């Protein structure tokens, strides 16, 4: 548990069943944090449900004193055949880069904090808690290019460039794929 000025935050690991039960709240938080249009949640729900079935899926959720979700992070073991893995592999190969970062990794799939709670250390604690005791030797993630709190967090945690200015199928924005070895400390 972390206490911040006028706020107590609990970090809990939800089971897939608990996360499924809180999926509407999770997706609402995601839409707020990413500033996406409301319909985005309906498109993401089936994907998030499918992710929960993947090997090594794990979630950490930040709750305020009333039990309201103010942050979430989840991920799983990345594998060939998964959409993200294949997208990143294609991007690396197109640029003549080695694909060995994809050999054995934990994919930090989602990390979001409600806008009114950002900048208070919740994102870092979510990442540290989620990545603690991971069995894979490295972690990979993607994030939109450009200066943001997320960028500062990932750099502070020691993430380095794997693939920059990559455009995933279906999203016009440029993304960076970042990675680092585990454990974090």
In short:
This protein is of the alpha+beta class and 185 residues long.
How does this model look, in words?
There is one protein chain. With 185 residues, this protein is α+β, with helices and mostly antiparallel strands. It is built from six helices and eight strands, in the order ββαααββαβαβαββ. Helices cover 32% and strands 29% of the residues. It has an eight-stranded mixed beta sheet, with helices on both faces. β5, α5 (122-131) and β6 (138-144) form a beta-alpha-beta unit.
Q: Helicity range of the residues? A: 25-40%
Q: Segments where pLDDT lies below 50 for 5+ residues?
A: none
Task: Report the C-alpha radius of gyration, rounded.
Answer: 16 Å
Describe the strand arrangement of the main beta sheet, using strand numbers.
1-2-3-4-5-6-8-7
- Mean pLDDT, as a whole number? 93
Number of strands: 8
**What is the number of helical segments per DSSP (H or I, 4+ residues)?**
6
Classify the beta-strand content into a percent band. 25-35%
What is the string of helix and strand elements?
A: EEHHHEEHEHEHEE
Going by helix content, strand content and strand pairing, the class is alpha+beta
Terminal Cα span: 20 Å
């Amino acid at each position: 548990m972390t206490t911040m000025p006028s706020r107590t935050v609990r970090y809990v690991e939800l089971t897939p069943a608990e996360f499924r039960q809180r999926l509407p709240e999770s997706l609402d938080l995601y839409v707020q944090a990413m500033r996406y249009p409301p319909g985005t949640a309906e498109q993401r729900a089936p994907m998030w449900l499918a992710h929960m079935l993947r090997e090594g899926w794990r979630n950490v959720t930040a709750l305020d004193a009333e039990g309201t979700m103010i942050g979430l992070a989840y991920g799983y073991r990345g594998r060939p055949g998964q959409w993200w893995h294949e997208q990143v592999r294609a991007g690396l190969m197109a640029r003549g880069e080695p694909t060995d970062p994809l050999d054995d990794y934990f994919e930090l799939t989602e990390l979001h904090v409600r806008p009114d709670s950002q900048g208070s250390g919740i994102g870092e604690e979510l990442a540290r808690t989620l990545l603690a005791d991971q069995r894979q030797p490295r972690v990979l993630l993607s994030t939109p290019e450009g200066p943001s709190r997320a960028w500062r967090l990932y750099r502070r945690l020691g993430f380095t460039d794997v693939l920059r200015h990559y455009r995933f199928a279906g999203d016009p924005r440029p993304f960076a794929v970042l990675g680092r070895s585990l454990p974090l400390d």
